[in-house]
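user: can you give me the structure for this one chain? tokens are fine.
assistant: on it. calling the predictor now.
[tool input]
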Amino acid sequence: MLRERLPVFEPVRICPSILSADLVHLGDDIASVAQAGAGFIHVDVMDGHFVPNLTMGVPLVKQLAHFTEVPLDVHLMISNPIEQLPWFIEAGADMLTVHAEALDGEGLVCVVRMMRDAGVRAAVALKPATPVDAIAPVLEEVDMVLVMSVEPGFSGQSYIEGSQDKVAAVVRMARERGCAPLIQVDGGIGCSTAPLVCAQGADLLVCGNAVFAADDPASALREIQAIGEDAREDALSIA
């Protein structure tokens, strides 16, 4: 069931991706970003099929659910989410993201319904080349849309120029349909790119190396968050 500690997001929040953390000292890294105000702990699950990499799985999610009070944002880069979704729900994920490319429209509706019935926040992700129309069957039912600003599969990639335009397109589509899912952006997000996506309506920023490779991850998190929030406030004031 949905844990009561799940926050309501109003300002821009940073979701540190533990794929870039020091896995030998993962507990310390998570404690540091939690104290700095992380919105979610972002867990990248890759199956070696949907993307060309193999990373974390159910056992780690289960341990993290007992270790940290920060909600777990589990990004499923897997080819068979319908079969595996119950594993991650039971493990304690607070929000689960499935890829639109892994399912047809009927399949997307099915997995979103599974998540909502289980009391887990439901999200859908789009690869850089995938049109926003792919999320149309579930846009009004999801809690979040994840816009990938790199090709999923590896950490440390550079931001794909123009990704902020897709953020704006998702925001427009949501407004036209009378809904307001959170918008998350993942890939190459740091001090220079956070303003680009936040000015277009991004709420949640997945940061890997920009936080965990910094000399002071907590300070880096707070700096990116402040820059993103300033950009969003400036954009709202102009609008």
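assistant: here you go. The longest strand covers residues 41-46. Strands lie at 13-16, 41-46, 72-77, 95-99, 121-126, 144-148, 182-186, 204-207.
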